[in-house]
Amino acid sequence: MRIYTRGGDDGFTSLADGSRVAKAVPRVEAYGDVDELNAALGVVRGETIPDDADAMVSRVQCALFEVGARLADPRGRFAPSRDVEDPGWLEGWIDDMEGGLPSLHNFIVPGGCRAAALAHLARTTCRRAERRVAALDLPGEEAARLLPFLNRLSDALFVLARWLNHRAGVADCPWKAPR
Predict the structure, then answer these.
(1) CA-CA to 135 of 20 to 30 Å: which in 11, 34, 67, 128?
(2) Alpha-carbon span 95 to 25, nearest angstrom
């Protein structure tokens, strides 16, 4: 299979059903942001992170491929799996990570160790993807089925960043409002 097809040279791309659309349409923007998020999580996994966190991020990446496939298919042939439909497993992961963290009383300035800073960057990419999906008018309320997963994922990535800092012995940097 050739990587280059020249099919997008005119500013259009093919969706999963074979239809051609402009690369700047909201649907393509949305699945592009989901793809960017998946790549950002690949960078997080490229860091030295604990095996249990790596396994969860890998699971998230697989679920993001499902989200992207659903967004790329206007006919709705790719039904999301339970991991996307029911983000309760992300809530469990959040609860597990939060168990050993100091309580939170302020906004946190993103940063800390490299892995945590990258998790914060992935979180902001996730929020953008969530906004793009929320703006779509998909048949069958499809966006509404994807939003809880993306919303919970951004929360999980915030806690992951805090957890990675904590594991690295780096304290949260609380934001303090100017007086």
Answers:
(1) 11
(2) 37
Residue 38 lies in a domain: yes
- Please list the pLDDT of the chain residue by residue as tens digits (179 residues): 778 888 788 888 888 888 998 888 999 999 999 999 999 999 999 999 999 999 999 999 999 999 999 999 988 888 889 999 999 999 999 999 999 899 988 899 999 999 999 999 999 999 999 999 998 876 555 677 899 999 999 999 999 999 999 999 999 988 888 88
Q: Can you give the residue range of the structural domain that contains 18?
A: 13-99+108-167
Residue type, 60: V
Identify the residue whose tokens are 């950002």: 40
What total number of domains does the chain contain? 1
Within a domain: 1: no
Would you call 174 helix, strand, or coil by DSSP? strand
